[in-house]
Design goal:
heterodimer, A: Rossmann fold, 40% helix, globular, B: Pyruvate-ferredoxin Oxidoreductase, domain 3, 6-stranded mixed β-sheet, 6 strands
Chain lengths: 410, 193
């Protein structure tokens, strides 16, 4: 039988979207504004049913676009409400300018995001191009490997956002997690509500006793200082995230950090990856460890703020590292996660690991055991000096010639 | 030695409930105390188009998130798919294929070009018409799958399915009994001959 981690918890079989909606039901924000988009639609569909059924008292604002969804959420948050939204892909793109306004105004909005490719060509499947594109927007970004993490991350996100005064998004991999039913342990409503607590904003526009100005013009004289404060708030958020995680562990028993180390401490070769592929990688690591190969994994949970100092320490002893990006910056150089990992190591004076950048899974392209086995094989050769690390991005499971016409999932 | 994870692939046509079957099956197996995954393959969603869905069952937490390429069990909701979809793709010598058909195991095995010992048949469409009143073969095939897998608790599955259907069809109680009877009948009638 499956053991509960939290004695008062309840095991259910639910998809990523369903548990995100469950978390929102338990959080019961004051205001939600959202616009439907595949594969995130279900979250708001289920949540709006909770409202229609009178289960939650949230004010739901039906808007005509994601730009308006984010605008309405910003307004609600500025007015003093606990406000949430959700979206994916093109929807996040349409929110773009408002994302920066949410963070610039330091509004603790929480967003349920489902990672999906960006058009063109049009594609509804999962890759992380959407949120990677928003990496510089001043939002805290929390990624989930599975539905349990999506649920736990949503609950923690509320406290993180409100303490850091930074908007926070929680993601799952589109379809792979959003539409995959898995075993999830849910906690009782009252315990979740007690954990997140009541929202008491320090300042808010509807507080007529303490009027203040929000969103005023800020030129050469002060803009830079305010942007510096935002950057510092992002840096300070690392400790806030860790503190919330500690309290979460104390309360519900599940352990979270900025990233997860899986068999990493004594590893000689390692993969750094974000999201559901970390789970597949764990299966491969178990097989390799049985054969005596010291393989490990570093799974990024928090991508913004980026845990640079900590990562540099934990990867310093690795001989060969593969950094796997489920997004391509089209930078003519490297993809986002690789760039951050390499910069973090170099800045900390860690220059011994050989590091290769892999881009995988764009538009939902399959990434399976055999692909990951091949990466570790390659890392083994690099670690032992038999192979030189690639100096450019290695693309996995993609046709590179015009002659191989058919793609088959195998 | 850990027990091997069980992987299932469902083949159906859009509207036959292949996705619902995988989800119901997943939930029911969780109720018997095992870890599960249930997920559909997303493609063009059109009534009648070939669709697939998948299940994983394990005694241990399931962390893999990738396609199922070598299923231990294949469930075919619509025998016309045998003409157009390679339903035995990736099925190895110990894999089993369960088909909704009125034909015998031997005939289906011949058509699929695999050993008859690997083929199970049940007339799920007829069972659905008799019990539910419509040709919706997904719930009877769920019963057949439970039988063929062998080590699952059919009563646990029935109990959980009843709870789920009661929540979904609270205004149509006759649908609930029909579905439960269809599961029981297919569980008893699925055969390897």
């Amino acid at each position: 039988m499956i053991k509960l981690v939290y004695p008062k918890g309840k095991l259910v079989a639910k998809t990523g979207n369903e548990v995100m909606a469950e978390a929102m039901r338990q959080i019961e924000p004051d205001v939600v504004a959202a616009y439907p988009i595949t594969p995130a639609t279900e979250i708001m569909q289920i949540f709006s049913q909770f409202i229609a059924d009178g289960i939650v008292k949230t004010e739901y604002i039906a808007v005509e676009s994601e730009h308006s969804a984010m605008s309405a959420t910003i307004a609600a948050s500025a007015a003093g409400a606990r406000a949430m939204t959700g979206t994916s892909s093109q929807g996040l793109c349409l929110m773009w300018e408002m994302l920066y306004i949410a963070s610039g105004l330091r509004l603790p909005i929480v967003m349920a995001e489902v990672n999906r490719a960006i058009s063109a060509p049009i594609n509804i499947h999962g890759d992380q191009s959407d949120t990677m594109g928003a990496r510089d927007s001043g939002w805290i970004q929390i990624y989930s490997e599975n539905s349990q993490e999506a649920y736990d991350n949503m609950i923690q996100a509320v406290r993180i956002a409100e303490k850091a005064k930074l908007p926070t998004l929680v993601t799952t991999d589109g379809f792979i997690i959003s539409h995959c039913m898995e075993v999830v342990e849910l906690y009782p409503d009252a315990d979740v509500k007690a954990f997140i607590g009541k929202y008491k904003p320090e300042r808010y526009l509807l507080d007529i006793k303490k009027p203040y100005t929000l969103g005023s013009i800020d030129l050469q004289d002060y803009y830079f200082e305010h942007r510096l404060q935002l950057a510092e708030a992002m840096k300070a958020a690392k400790n806030i995230i860790l503190n919330v995680a500690q309290d979460f562990k104390k309360t519900f028993g599940r352990e979270y950090e900025l990233y997860e180390k899986y068999m990493l401490n004594d590893a000689e070769i390692a993969i750094v990856v974000i999201g559901s592929t970390a789970g597949t990688t764990k299966v491969v690591i178990k097989e390799l460890r049985d054969k005596g190969i010291k393989a490990g994994l570093l799974k990024i949970r928090i991508f913004r703020p980026f845990p640079s100092e900590q990562i540099a320490k934990d990867l310093a002893h690795i001989k060969a590292i593969a950094v796997m990006d489920k997004a391509d910056s089209c930078s003519g150089a490297f993809a986002p996660l690789y760039s951050d990992v390499v910069a973090s190591l170099y800045a900390a004076g860690v220059t011994t690991p050989k590091i290769v950048n892999y881009v995988y899974g764009l538009g939902g392209r399959e990434i399976n055991i055999s692909h990951i086995v091949n990466i570790y094989k390659s890392l083994n050769k690099i670690a032992s000096g038999q192979q030189k690390p690639s100096t450019t991005i290695e693309y996995i499971n993609v046709r590179k010639t015009k002659h191989s016409l058919f793609y088959k999932c195998e | 030695m850990p027990v091997k994870m069980i992987e299932v692939r469902w083949h159906g046509r859009g509207g036959q409930g292949a996705k619902t079957a995988a989800l119901l099956f997943g939930e029911a197996v969780l109720a018997t105390g095992k870890y599960i995954q249930a997920f559909p393959e997303y493609g063009p969603e059109r009534m009648g188009a070939p669709v697939q869905s998948f299940n994983r069952i394990s005694e241990y937490p399931i962390t893999i998130h990738a396609c199922i390429t070598n299923p231990d069990y294949v469930v075919v909701l619509d025998s016309s798919l045998l003409e157009s979809v390679p339903v035995t793709y990736g099925v190895n010598k110990t894999g089993k294929v369960i088909v909704n058909t009125s034909f015998s195991t031997t005939k289906i095995a011949h058509k699929l070009n695999i050993d008859a010992s690997q083929v199970y048949v049940v007339n799920a469409s007829q069972i659905a018409i008799d019990t539910i009143g419509k040709n919706i073969p997904n719930t009877p095939m769920l019963g057949a799958l439970v039988k063929v897998i062998g080590n699952l608790d059919i009563n646990g599955v029935l109990e959980d399915t009843k709870v789920k259907l009661t929540a979904k069809f609270r205004h149509k109680p006759e649908v609930i009994d029909g579905n439960l009877n269809s599961i029981k009948r297919a569980f008893n009638e699925v055969k390897n001959k």
